[in-house]
Amino acid sequence: MSRAERLIGLMKLNEALRMRRQARALGELADEIDRTKTIQDRLASLIRANTPIGEEMTPFALRSRAWYGQEMQEQLDVLANRSGFLDVELEQARRALMQLKNRETILKERGVAARQAAIEDRERREEGQKAPRMVKKKN
């Protein structure tokens, strides 16, 4: 194995490790997005359940219901912002993963080229070490 092949092999291993880390981060982001969407759905259903139905209420109950409704709406807005942020982060993580995959592909191609160059160099050296053939002259 030539020095160039070894170096490219080590670079490929490094890229593979980086890809694994990036894929793990991508999975965690996707899980976080799912959790955020689940909580958003729950909050939305709680807000719908908190709206007055037309029944008679005391002023205290009305004030309490309005306060809880406002708090839940604020939390829903925060979750919507978080969801938007996580979507952007997920897209960036996917883009970074694709770049790492492209780099790995390039390194594979360079590894094949380095291997071929090493083989050709070895063959050239072996050719130079062979004794020249003696050609018999015909008289």
List the helices and strands and how they pair.
Layout: H1 3-50, H2 59-129
Helix pairs in contact: 1-2
Structure described in brief:
By secondary structure, the chain is mostly helical. It has helices spanning 3-50, 59-129.
Which characteristics define this entry?
139 residues, mainly alpha, 86% helix, 0% strand
Question: Can you characterise this structure?
Answer:
- The chain has 139 residues and is mainly α.
- It has 2 helices and no strands.
- It is rod-shaped and about 125 Å long.
Gross geometry: rod-shaped
Helix/strand-derived category reads: mainly alpha
Beta fraction of the residues?
Answer: under 5%
Characterize the main sheet.
none
Q: Which residues sit in consecutive blocks of at least 5 with pLDDT less than 50?
A: none
Overall helicity: over 70%
What sequence of helices (H) and strands (E) makes up the elements? HH
Rg calculated over all Cα atoms: 33 Å
The N- and C-terminal alpha carbons lie at a distance of 49 Å
DSSP, total strands: 0
Number of helices: 2
In round numbers, the mean pLDDT is 88
